[in-house]
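If you are new to this repository, start here. Below is one unmodified record pulled from the training split, so you can see the exact layout before writing a loader.
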Amino acid sequence: MKIKKLNYSFIALALLMLTGCSAKEKQIEQRVHRMAEAAELGTVEYKVKKIVKTDDNQWYSVGDRKILFQSTAYLKAGVKLDGFTADKVKINGKDVTVTLPHAELLSFNMPAEETETVFENYGFFRSSFSAEEQNHILELGEKDIREDVPNLGILQDAEQNVSDIFTAMLNQMGFQNININFEEVKK
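And here is the target side for that same chain:
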């Protein structure tokens, strides 16, 4: 897996927002409003290759039945800004602190055309895997990837990228001490 791309369209939007108003607080309030309208700030996309296999040996059946798939999934992570408001920005002279929501998985795509059967074997007394069984096996592979998202590093990369975007934008506005925080996790 690797970082595929940074969402440059949002960076362009952020840079466009750097021009304008006279009072910094009014300026930030307007920018925050525009960002919140964007709803999502996708900052990182991973391409994940997954091997999905099953060995369907049952005690009451004669013969083995195995299948192995190779699939590709595209995961996009970032921050949802729909709840982001001006009160999440604290200004004290040239100091600013911004509190953002934690990054989350924004989209997951495992295209069928990028999934291939690498190996399939079934004994003489067994049938091949039906389309329904194959779909179920691939759904289990998707579930496994989704459960592993916290361990992939994609959420940490997304938060770092969001932090970098906000830091650059606020630096352009003249702030010298910039703190980007993420909301505490609610239990």
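Two things worth knowing about this chain: Residues 1-22 have pLDDT under 50 and may be disordered. DSSP finds four helices and eight strands in the chain.
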